Amino acid sequence: MNLKFKRKSFCFKLSSKVENSNTIYLEKSGWIIQLVNNEQEVGFGEVSPLLMRDFKKCQEQINKIPEYINLINLSEQIKTFHPCIQSAINSALAEINGEIIFKKKYFFDEIDQAAILFNPNNVIEELHKLQKNRNFLGKSLTLKWKVAIKDNELEERNLKAILNQMNSNIRLRIDANGSWSREIANRWADILKDNLNIDWLEQPLAIDDIDGLKELNKKIPIALDESLLKYPTLINDWDGWQIRRPSQEKNPINLLRDLENKKGLISISTSFETGIGRRWLYHLSSLQLLGPTPKVPGLAMNKTPNSYLFLNEPQKIWDRL
Fold first, then answer.
1. Does residue 129 sit in the same domain as residue 243?
2. What are phi and psi of 51, to 5 degrees?
């Protein structure tokens, strides 16, 4: 199969900054790609790197792909490319081949249909506002709190205050982005292990500390994120929750198949994609909610601006870029 390859760059500012223990995100840049085959069937993908060093690598590699290329040659060429490029190409091919058929409408626009990303500087205040808002009464809300940003003593005080004030309709996810020591991680695990509000601790230890993560997982649910990206074999080996980000994996079709086959302990998470990549997030999240361990996805809906870039219609996004 011969293909025509096109790309267009995008850049947008997040509605508000996203801070974790390793970096601060203020904006997002990447590329929308379009593949067209001999029958004029079209597939779209998104190259969506999170870090500047990955952006530069993707920029160098994506410029090496010619406008006209055979499928076999394209598949061979991208084998050594950054996973974000492989994800975009494989996403577009899956759309052309009918391996994924997107819906015109997905339902993740209400506050209780996706996790709410806390501002780490105002966690107590934000919790108060949510619990006092009459529009949210009776709704089950999931909150995500990024930690290891401030002094641990302060964050532990905040944790205890949150646990004392949290209603039974609140679920809590705590993400250390791989920045805790084993000592601190175990302290938090001891505080949380019997708490019914907690979903999981996300990547509490360094990416490479697999043994430490396995031991913690015996005490409290541990969700891997960054470790999965560095060590993809953990997708099959890890006995616990997995935070899966399709735009960062080499082939999101594998994740699609896992969810279609009702694999559990998977949670879908965003890397601040445009509407092109978000179609995958929505579709996979819909499947996850039908599986054996349903959990609302982490879509960071309040962090993306109101823009044509986030339409659920890829051709309109493409035409306006």
1. yes
2. -105, 150
Helix (H, G, I), strand (E, B) or coil at 13: strand
Q: Are 294 and 288 in contact (CB under 8 A)?
A: yes
The pair phi, psi for residue 288, each rounded to 5°, is -60, -40
Distance between CA atoms of 31 and 42, rounded to whole angstroms? 16
* Cα angle, residue 41 at apex, residues 31 and 94 outer, rounded to 5°: 65
Q: Which residues, 6+ apart, have CB-to-CB distance to 90 below 8 Å?
A: 45, 250, 251, 252, 253
Q: Which two structure tokens, joined as six digits, stand for 31?
A: 């590329």
Are 244 and 85 in contact by the 8 Å Cβ rule? The answer is: no
**The model's pTM:** 0.95
CATH of the domain at 86: 3.30.390.10
Residue type, 211: D
Distances (CA, A) of 280 to 43, 284, 286: 13, 6, 10
Q: Is the same domain home to 126 and 268? A: yes
136 in Cβ contact with 112 (< 8 Å): yes
The answer on 121 and 185 residing in a single domain is yes
- For residues 298 and 115, the answer to whether their CB atoms sit within 8 Å is yes
Residue type, 17: K
Q: For each of the chain's 321 residues, which pLDDT tens digit applies? A: 899 999 999 999 999 999 999 999 999 999 999 999 999 999 999 999 999 999 999 999 999 999 999 999 999 999 999 999 999 999 999 999 999 999 999 999 888 899 999 888 889 998 988 888 877 877 899 999 999 999 999 999 999 999 998 988 999 999 999 999 999 999 999 999 999 999 999 999 999 999 999 999 999 999 999 999 999 999 999 999 999 999 999 999 999 999 999 999 999 999 999 999 999 999 999 999 999 999 999 999 889 999 999 999 999 999 999
Strand, coil or helix: 7: strand
- Residue that is last in its domain, among 79, 101, 123: 101
**Is 314 among the domain residues?**
no
